[in-house]
Fold:
Amino acid sequence: MDNKSSINQQLSQLYKDHSGKVLATLVRLLGDFDLAEEAMHEAFSLALGSWDTQGIPANPTAWLISTGRFKAIDNLRRKKRFGELASDIQQQIDELEEHHQNLSQQDIEDDQLRMIFTCCHPAIDPQIQIPLTLREVCGLSTEEIASAFLVSPSTMAQRIVRGKNKIQQTKIPFIIPEINELPERLDALLSVIYLVFNEGYSASSGDSLLRIDLSSEAIRLARLVLALLVDSEVMGLLALMLLHESRRQARTDLEGNIILLEDQDRSLWNRAYIDEGSALVQQALATRRFGAYTIQAAIAAVHAQSQGTTDWEQIIALYSVLLQVEPSPVIELNRAVAIAMRDGEQAGLNIIDGILARGELQDYSKMHSTRGELLRRLGQTSAAITAFEQALDLVKQLPEQRFLQQKLAQLRSQ
Amino acid sequence: MQYMLLIYSDEQNWTEDERQDCFQKSMCISAELAAEGKLISAAPLHSVTTATSLRIKNGKRHITDGPFAETTEQLGGYYIVDVDNLDQALEIASRLPPAQKGTVEVRPLFPLPERLTN
Structure:
């Protein structure tokens, strides 16, 4: 490989590794997203020209920040010449020139955390928090994000611009929240990461080969947050995602059809992810300040570690704790399944019918497919068919439709 | 940076005692904000039944009795505060009594060029 293409390849890896850090610090120094992005791109293009002759510097992040800062001063001087509010710009240039001192590793890490909290500020629409975080923190391009969410690049660009305008115009502060606000703000941040993960995890097959892997991005983001901020729920969420991700290869067949947990080929499960996820669960539980993500991860860990027989007793106990932390009919439904596995189908069915009688989850397809499966196992074929038909009416994703159609075909042929 | 805090709630949903209590607490908060140099102005509004709306069509004034739009929550008062950032404005909004019963909408004021304000 010639030197130029090797530098190009290294540079694209360096972009992935460093652009988030460089941008975060430049946003703090410049107080402006657009100026910072412009300066960062100029710094990377200068790097392309200079590093292949002079070699990659020992601390590329520091080099890029410092170069970006000089570029920003140049750009501001040029603006000043065109007479835009000259006194404000001069003040900004003076401030920037004072920032000569070397940035510590801690400064750079704090800036990244500021960036994450700013992009996930509750004043920003959740539909915008997600792409904004992927772009400004993970360094993905607008085109990559657009294709991941199956919208046009121009629609996605508009959303991102709206987010940046909201930050700029309403002056959302570029800070790490105070300790009293941290739990609430961290919740918002973790839910963004989990939404990114689920978007990637549930992505339909087919063109997914061309789409960037949102699940990996979410895991990368959670690792980054955990490195910056040690918190039990961050561990819990990272563990939960790793444990789900460990089954990715096994959860569908080659045609993209769903394979249920109990029928999956366990040799396809990713052991490294399971081990890392399980260790994180233990670590989070040991803090005794864990929440819903940790408990869900603990349930996933029990499933992942089961060799043939599942410890339903423990799973039911964990669901009971989860219900106390986060009361929800969906969790009640999951607990009912575990109870059916321990005490028999009728016991699970009684709980499920209780939830439906309260008027809850009537439009939730999993509610009806679960009911259908329990009825099928009890030999109540016609009631099972009705339940699966109700589920089929409610699902939108193609693999799930196929799964239900197969179930119905089997039942009708009996 | 200046922010306007617009207070919306259902006017019918307040007892006389609650109204008085809200008034007292709001006066205290205004006094605190003024002492900190953060208050630009604040006022409760008369009931939405006193609203008059005007629009001009084909050069002719159309005046109607009532608010811009009939909604379940109505604009009942406002604050204009001068603080450093949105988080500080939201912190003030969270202390206003109507936040418990209705909604406080926080909007930044568009800063006018100095030559217009002088």
Summary: The helical segments of chain B are 16-35, 86-95, 114-117. The interface with chain A takes residues 1, 84-87, 90, 106-108 of chain B (CB under 8 Å). Chain B has a mean pLDDT of 92.
